[in-house]
Amino acid sequence: MQVFATPKLNHVDITSDFWKRYRELVVKEVLPYQWQVMNDEADIAIADDPQNNGQDKNSHAVANLKIAAGEMEGHHYGFPFQDTDVYKWLEAAAYSFSYHPNDDLKTITDNLIDLIAKAQDDDGYLSTYFQIDAPERKFKRLQQSHELYTMGHYIEAGVAYYQATGNQKALDIATRMADCIDRNFGLEEGKIPGYDGHPEVELALARLYEATDDQKYLDLAHYFLNQRGQDPAFFEKQIKEDGDSMDRDLIPGMRDFPREYYLAAEPIADQKVPHGHAVRVVYLCTGMAYVARYTRDAALLAACDRFWNDLVKRQMYITGNIGQTTTGEAVTYDYDLPNDTDYGETCASVGMSFFAKQMLNIRAKGEYADVLEKELFNGAISGMALDGKHFFYVNPLEADPAASKGNPGKSHVLTHRADWFGCACCPANLARLITSVDQYLYTVTDDTILSHQFISNNAQFSDGVAINQSNNFPWSGEIHYDVKNPNGKAFKLGIRIPSWSKKFGLEIDGEVKTLPVEDGFIYLDVTGKAVTIDLSLDMRVKFMRANNRASADFGKVAIQRGPIVYAAEQADNKAPLWSYEVDTKTKPSYAYDANLLNGVGVVKVSADKVELDSTDADLYAEDGDQTSETVDMTLVPYYAWANREDGQMRVWLNK
């Protein structure tokens, strides 16, 4: 009987041209630019925001820490969670050191750690709004305060920075912070029997448990998850005790959302489907999956499965975006997928990537990796322009500058990326995903190495095992593996077969092989010292339809090739884009254009363009034939739209 010993993953170098460009862009452009913004040194134009989430171009995020540390005088500026812009930036910088060491940046980040340590209270508490302007209100309005959310983001950053640099102070800040939370929350007498209005600390505490092996941090994360919704009136009781007048609110309007918005209307075990704010949903799901894996809590795992199935099968856009409405940046109801008012917050796509990664850690299921891929190549990176200095908060699947300007209900949809936002959660969140993407390619279980993302890389494992994956993905589906196993210890290797590639070719050591697909993966036993694998994926251009319960997409098609979802832009197609009817019986064409949008695959489809009626014509007339001409419609990857001239965009096209 063959005995398998799975090597542990030590390090991954990204060699993909596609992702190397993004990762270098973050180091060279995004991190310096965001540091300037957070220090109020950048000349920026703040994005128009119909929700009035703060439209002053100042960030003051670093200044808030300096005030809390006693290095400056003044009042807190911005949202109660303004600190998190700094923490997510710090986390992104930490990950970047693994592939782009930078002494100048490290000097900045080391000094930032010193500042954060100085700003932290003696008892471990750190949330600058309350330290500066409202120390008497600490932990007293958790529905709105984001205190645990804020500290959770530092804990994540502190763990990442410690692991990247060995900086013990960074980890000590995190453990002191978590110890403060542990002293204040729980069911014991004298503690607060509650939780934060915005999930985040749960997943952060699980990461801290991994870094320290201290059980109390996992227990605390487990407590927060199990306590959520046990007393549905908890937030209201706190508001009453803290002072019920509206001028006491930390964020105006937050009390008006129902309990479901905060995922607090009932215990998680009783919640059938996710409701409320999309980012809260996916952060909660990530924490649930993390903690369920370590505690084997069956109720939490069942909730993960319920929430995953509802989001992916009934509430997710084809690009991976979630959160359909601008009202509360929330998910709505099954199959409600409007394209022109879609919110699709960048943070929600980033958070969905976190959730997918944690589900892969629980079980080897190709569906999780498919969604992760969808986010990485579509929903998440669409949040940043190709120059690294402009960003989308909202990611629609249909846009028209005239509609955004003329219809207040569509004013949240920008047709060009903005310099910055008053609520600037998205830019740094995307930066930390891109700089850590090397952590999303492999999942190592007790008996198998899973290779589930086709991002070319050199991976080093224990026992001298090395996996080199080379490709030109996502433009080519030819995937090559060189596996070195010098000690000859047998292990299993699983390779994902994407759901978009029902047909595939496989050669092992140059010999054609047929292996069964098991829940989205093929498996082979690596028993010798070396093996080569060649996988050929189906990269045909496909016309996709939505479930016919999704009324917004009925009678329409979207274009997809490999993992890439395509969009039509006015820059390539004469407006209006609604006047095109795609001929799905004529084979599309595909070509790679190295000079367009930093190099993209371009798809052309045949379509009839209907001639517009005269502006003097009646608004309504009896139906009849309309004059049209056959044209080629040009489409580019969705992630790259809005990098040229301002204009209309559509993903779903008339059939």
Automatic annotation (TrEMBL):
GO terms, biological process: carbohydrate metabolic process
Domain Non-reducing end beta-L-arabinofuranosidase-like GH127 C-terminal positions: 541-654
InterPro entries: 6-hairpin_glycosidase_sf (IPR008928), 6hp_glycosidase-like_sf (IPR012341), Beta-AFase-like (IPR049174), Beta-AFase-like_GH127_C (IPR049049), Beta-AFase-like_GH127_cat (IPR012878), Beta-AFase-like_GH127_middle (IPR049046)
Superkingdom field: Bacteria
Domain Non-reducing end beta-L-arabinofuranosidase-like GH127 middle: 448-539
Pfam families, sorted: Beta-AFase-like_GH127_cat, Glyco_hydro127C, Glyco_hydro127M
The Non-reducing end beta-L-arabinofuranosidase-like GH127 catalytic domain, residue ranges: 11-438
Stated name of the protein: Glycosyl hydrolase
